Amino acid sequence: MWQMVTERRKWITESNVGSRIAKMRKTTKRCNKVKSLLYSSFWGNQATQYGVDNEVKCPYSAKDISIDDACSNSSFSLENDSRHKLKRRHDCHFQIQCQLFCVDCEWCDLVMMTGRDFHTQRIYRDKKW
User: Are strands 107-113 and 118-124 parallel, antiparallel or unpaired?
Assistant: First the structure.
């Protein structure tokens, strides 16, 4: 378990990029934010272990339902606006944009899996992000 915690500190995670960096207030002390990211005491939970075991985006909250059903939950990363697509203000979108910039790629393919089905979508780097 300790090895996973040590490795996870190096990852560009959805929770770190989305809620802890991209949505950071201008008044937030940057030094404290960096320390909290580098020296987090988070050891993981059932949801993070589920994600590690499945290797693609597979929200634990949707492990037993379809993508259509998951889209009815406002906190789910996809929306169903005549077709499924990633919400541009969701933490998952921020994570992907950060990763695309870090590895200097123009796009990636998102694979989102629930317990009943899956969704794929090509996500392009947003040069204004």
Answer: antiparallel
Q: Is 1 exposed, middle or buried (0-12, 13-18, 19+ CB in 10 A)?
A: exposed
109 with 121: CB under 8 angstroms? Answer: yes
Token couple for 93: 């979108």
First-to-last alpha carbon distance for the chain, in angstroms, is 34
3-53: per-residue pLDDT in tens? 666 776 677 787 778 777 888 888 988 888 778 777 777 778 898 889 888
Which pair of tokens denotes residue 75? Answer: 């906190």
Q: In a 3-state reduction of DSSP, which class is residue 65?
A: coil
pTM for the predicted model, two decimal places: 0.79
